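Teaching assistant's notes for section 4

Start the section by putting this record on the projector. Ask students to predict, before seeing the second block, whether Chemotaxis response regulator protein-glutamate methylesterase will look compact or extended. Collect guesses on the board.
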Amino acid sequence: MQYIPIKCLVVEDEEADRLMFKRVFRQFNRAGSVEFATSLANARNSLAVRKYDIIVLDNSLEDGKGADFILELSKNEELSPIPVVIVSDWPSPFMYAKAKSGNVLDVLTKDQFDVETLRRVMKAASLCD
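Reveal the predicted structure now:
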């Protein structure tokens, strides 16, 4: 079966966590591109000029909370359909509540983000078999 390449935006400000995401996506071994934004401002800029199939979003960023960014995405007609995975060191009940307002597939701890979890999330987003 031929796959359409996946375009993913990962919003993460910590270098060590970006390396972890790169490793997991490499192990996923699926054609496509993974781009990184180190802030919500960078993510907004990327989303303004490119189309993505999925967003992996850290919750704690220097310029805001990923959970609040979900609300922003949900109000944008072009961006609201993009599935999002929130990945946080410390998921909170508030984060889950805000996630319900957007197209959030899952809320995970960073320890939970591995290749099997990525495969499950991509299947839920209809981005792989």
